[in-house]
Design brief:
The protein is of the alpha/beta class. The chain has helices at 18-35, 50-58, 70-84, 96-99, 102-111, 162-174, 217-227, 248-262, 285-288, 292-297, 313-322, 350-357, 369-388, 396-406, 419-427, 448-459, 469-474, 507-510, 513-521, 528-534, 545-558, 570-587; strands at residues 40-43, 63-66, 89-92, 115-121, 147-149, 180-186, 232-236, 266-268, 281-282, 302-306, 325-329, 342-346, 412-415, 435-437, 463-468, 489-495, 540-542, 562-567.
Length: 593
């Protein structure tokens, strides 16, 4: 079949003016996104994406962050959305470049983080003929996106709908359950051109925000009957409060007022927004419940689960054995139930539920229920301090305590999955006025450093990242150009030369040392100091707790991107955890009368 020739792509029928059309088209989309609240774009270098990259760079309302590696770029955009609750524009060229966004798109989907992935594509005539950098990008991310749109090569005849396309992408990314969308935009050559006058904008009312979902009267009455006078517990997971871009303080206070009124303790995930200094917040719940006598003496009758799951397997097993009635609440209706123990679930925010219940006269739990938990929590906290006395070397439980304590008021802490988030949940004391973020959707360890960079850029606040060495290596591309970014980020790497979390699994005892190290310990042998130095970063390596505390204080004082490598031993780490568990168990043993 003969194809008409043109000076650009083979088979193109566009005139050289098509470059101006594409430029005007992209400038219109960007302008509408900016008017809709978007202020960040993460751009990966490439040719086919030139019209959109140029439009983003030239718009005064958009701050462009150029990232060489697409996977890192995806997670940086995720961090920006995680912090602000607004989507960042994520741009790639055509071909496999777009494939590398997939992990971040999956995390954005499962964590309900808005994101607009713009994947530049080749025009239709270059598909099916093995043209370079041309793959099937249609529905590239499957059902992980809220919306997929492929509007075709821009044509001036479609200009009345260009702003609608931008608004639709914003709406799909933010309304309902927030999440990622994919715009697959095809461009013909020439890829450069001068934007003309932009189409006018409809100045109609902005009605994108959905109404707050309340609790039906019959459900509210049922819950009031369920909780009155009962021993209960509130589990506060991720999504208990809105991200830091929302009214987090108001929501936190509502949840804590509910706990006080019911006389129930709160077991709060570090990223819940509720793990603060409050009489109802119990921070050592994982350690307390490892004492079988304590766990059997304090059995709940009712459990309210807010947002996502806690990381503690001990808590989950205890709740199953307790036979308590468990009811879940989530603002997006995503109530996880892998153990199939929920009696009911409700698609309402915990704050809405709390506000509804605190206006009713509900009998609190029996006298002493909350006091018993609070007393045990105080004894466990003191036991942790005693258990750490004399341990001068870096220990991973002490590291999470010290890192959280070092974050300045109003700062951010980003915590990697695997051991850091578990240690934070188990050992760290409550902390006010610090926002904690973690990629808890898919619980992966990829893209953690890039996520933290996005959080730091989006917040403008001092940010600390706590990450393991394997996760740090997974995202080493995030270090490219980091020293030149205007970001106040301190990266603390717990370096135990491998996968420390696996040392707590049965495999560590059931395999030979050689097998275990090969398959699970996986020592990488990388000297992280040289990796950082290759990127122009001068890391500080510490081996003692006092050294880590001093390094944190110095790095936060000096500002800018900093890396602290805290050396730890995997085998010794297991021993420290066991020692602290024993100290807490002894502290909460029932006292003789």
């Amino acid at each position: 079949m003969d194809r008409p020739a043109a000076s650009g792509d083979p088979g193109s029928t566009d005139s050289p003016d098509s470059g101006a059309v594409a430029a005007t088209y992209c400038a219109t989309l960007v302008d509408e996104w900016s008017l809709g609240g978007v202020d960040h774009a993460v751009v990966c270098p490439g040719s086919r994406s030139t019209p959109m990259a140029t439009a983003l760079a030239r718009h005064p309302g958009i701050l462009v962050h150029v990232v060489h590696d697409e996977r890192s770029a995806g997670f940086m955009a995720l961090g920006l959305g995680l912090e602000s609750a607004k989507p960042a524009i994520l741009l790639s060229t055509s071909g496999t470049a777009a494939v590398h966004f997939h992990a971040a798109v999956v995390e954005a989907d499962l964590s309900a983080v808005p994101l607009i992935a713009v994947t530049a594509d080749r025009p239709p005539e270059l598909h099916g003929v093995f043209a370079p950098q041309t793959i099937n990008q249609r529905n590239l991310y499957g059902d992980s996106v809220r919306w997929y749109c492929e509007p075709g090569v821009p044509d001036s005849g479609g200009s009345p709908w260009w702003r609608d396309l931008a608004r639709d992408s914003l709406t799909r990314a933010q309304d309902g359950i927030p999440g990622p969308v994919q715009l697959n935009l095809a461009f013909r050559e020439p890829l450069t051109g001068t934007a003309g006058e932009l189409p006018g904008r409809d100045e109609g009312p902005d009605d994108r925000r959905p109404a707050t979902v309340g609790l039906p009267d019959e459900d509210l009455a049922r819950l009031i009957g369920l909780v009155g006078g009962r021993r209960g517990i509130i589990l506060a997971g991720v999504r208990t409060t809105m991200p830091s871009g929302g009214d987090q303080e108001t929501e936190r206070q509502l949840v804590l007022r509910l706990a006080a009124g019911l006389g129930w303790p709160v077991f709060a995930d570090a990223a819940s927004g509720v793990r603060v200094g409050d009489p109802a917040v119990v921070s050592t719940f994982d350690l307390l419940l490892r004492n079988e006598r304590f766990a059997s003496d304090l059995q709940p009758e009712v459990v309210f689960r807010f947002g996502g799951l806690l990381t503690s397997k001990v808590v989950n097993a205890w709740l199953i054995s307790s036979g308590a009635v468990q009811v879940a609440f989530d603002r997006h209706g995503r109530c996880p139930d892998p153990d199939r123990v929920l009696s009911r679930s409700h698609p309402v925010s915990p704050a809405v539920l709390a506000e509804a219940l605190i206006h009713h006269d509900i009998s609190p739990a029996p006298a002493g229920w909350l006091a018993d938990w609070s007393d045990a929590d105080q004894r466990a906290r003191a036991a942790l301090q005693s258990g750490l006395v004399g341990l001068g070397e870096v220990t991973e439980p002490a590291a999470v305590m010290d890192v959280l304590a070092a974050v300045p008021t109003g700062g951010r802490l980003v915590v990697s999955s695997s051991m850091p988030i578990r240690d934070l949940e188990s050992f760290a004391a409550p902390r006010d006025q610090v926002v904690v973020h973690s990629n808890r959707g898919a619980n992966g360890i990829d893209g953690v450093t890039s996520t933290a960079i996005g959080v730091a850029l989006g917040s403008g606040a001092p940010t600390v990242l706590l990450v393991g060495d394997v996760a740090f290596l997974h995202d080493s591309a995030a270090l490219t150009g980091l020293r030149n970014r205007d970001v106040n980020l301190v990266i603390v790497v717990i370096d135990n030369d491998g996968g420390g979390i696996f040392s707590f699994l049965p495999q560590a005892q059931e395999m030979t040392e050689g097998e275990f190290e090969l398959l699970f310990g996986t020592p990488h042998g990388t000297d992280l100091r040289f990796l950082c130095a290759a990127h122009g970063l001068a890391p500080e390596q510490v081996r003692t707790r006092a050294g880590l505390q001093a390094a944190l204080a110095g790095a936060l004082h000096r500002r800018g991107p900093r890396v602290i490598i805290a050396r730890s031993d995997r085998a010794a780490n297991v021993g420290v955890h066991r020692r602290l568990n024993e100290f807490v168990a002894a502290a909460v043993e029932p006292r003789a009368v």
